[in-house]
Specification:
By secondary structure, the protein is an all-alpha fold. The protein has helices spanning 18-49, 51-60, 64-91, 98-123. It has four helices and no strands.
């Protein structure tokens, strides 16, 4: 059987809907969170090793690069959690249509933006 369908191999010309982008970035944030948890576990280990280790961890968290790293990890967690809740809501049958998916994605992105700003305010 000969397949006469057109083949589009130019990835740059494909327009993905917002739901696809949200889903792809959700997967990426999951991978990045895995690395972020490793950083946080190393910091926790240092802080629990001794009183001096705790003081070193506390001092290192006062620097701007450390605060930026913590803010990035908190932002990843906020995004991943909001989109995860959106997926769970869709799993129970709410927002399964294309319009519902787009609306849910926009709501989740708005909630993520609020959480990211609140995390930044909390850290600084």
């Amino acid at each position: 059987m000969k397949d006469n369908r057109p083949v589009n191999l130019d990835i740059g010309s494909i327009r993905l809907p917002i739901t696809a982008w949200v889903s792809i970035v959700h997967r990426v944030t999951g991978v990045l969170l895995f690395a972020g948890v490793a950083v946080l576990l190393c910091l926790l280990e240092q802080s629990l090793s001794s009183p001096e280790g705790f003081e070193q961890a506390r001092q290192s968290l006062q620097s701007t690069p450390a605060k930026l790293l913590l803010w990035a990890i908190a932002s990843l967690l906020a995004y991943h959690s909001c989109i995860g809740v959106k997926h769970l809501i869709m799993d129970i049958g709410i927002g399964e249509t294309m319009e519902g998916g787009v609306r849910g994605a926009r709501i989740a992105l708005a909630a993520t933006a609020v959480l990211v700003i609140l995390a930044g305010v909390w850290l600084w």
